[in-house]
Amino acid sequence: MMELPERLCESLIIPDWPALAQVRAASTTRWGGVSQPPCDSLNLAGHVGDDPLDIAENRRRLAGALNLVHEPAWLEQVHGTIVVEAETVSAPVIADAACTRVPGRPCVVMTADCLPVLLCDRAGTVVAAAHAGWRGLAAGMIGATVARMKRPSIELLAWLGPAIGPDAFEVGEEVRAAFLRLDAGNALCFRPSPAGRWLADLYELARRQLRGLGISAIYGGEFCTFSEPERFFSYRREPRTGRMASLIWLE
After folding, report:
1. Taking the domains of the chain in order of start, what are their residue ranges?
2. Which is nearest to 165 in space by CA: 102, 214, 118, 231?
3. Tens of pLDDT along 73-114?
């Protein structure tokens, strides 16, 4: 049975942060769409083997639920540091973040364990969305996005959306070493796992980077995509799965 669009509206995660009213933002969960297992049901990505007609319907439902005037700036994410202007995107481009000062042009990133970071300024004049998995964080994705916003860091707010939590994100020594090369203090974000590897706190790694950039107004970061299968997609949990979206735009 097709799920009612109301479930999509009810399942949206709206950031709890002191952004001005003209800054709109939301993260989806896995519910409210028409995709079949294993992408059930609100898969928004076209690269996971889902039916293109179902993806189109899911995106149509999302646009309706959020009253979007323009299509979101869908990206072809590659765990890099390229940032684009959302209003210039008419078809998916290779990038891992988007920003805009133009009302009605949604920035969007898709995730299924990686960390979505939404940013805005206190004056409500510029917004951005960044895809920050561990590779993107280690490469400087957040810093590249903040630089593109061209606002003093003290004027920025950040919200950390649904990502894999610190009790589930097991990584090898090479991941820990990459972050220690950036900052020895990042050792605080890793603890030994029972399997002899490391459990990494993606949220805290992002918070440390944001604070290092001069951003102290940081919100969100209380989710775990891996441990909530009824709510979130997780690539670590199911290699073939859907993708959620985190969006931000100016009204």
Report:
1. 5-250
2. 231
3. 999 999 999 999 999 999 999 999 999 999 999 999 999 999
Token pair 């969305």 is found at: 129
Nearest residue to 121 (alpha-carbon basis) of 243, 206, 22: 22
Peptide bond into 193 cis (omega under 30): no
CB neighbour list of residue 228: distance below 8 Å, 6 or more residues apart: none
Which residue matches tokens 């969100």? 220
5-250 maps to which CATH number?
3.60.140.10
The Cα 40–Cα 95 span in angstroms is: 26
Does residue 5 have a cis peptide bond before it, meaning omega lies within 30 degrees of 0?
A: no
Query: Helix or strand or coil: residue 9?
Result: helix
Taking only the tens place, the pLDDT of each residue in 126-148 is 999 999 999 999 999 999 999 99
User: Whole-prediction pTM value?
Assistant: 0.96
Instruction: Give the rounded distance of the alpha carbon of 211 from its chain centre.
Output: 19
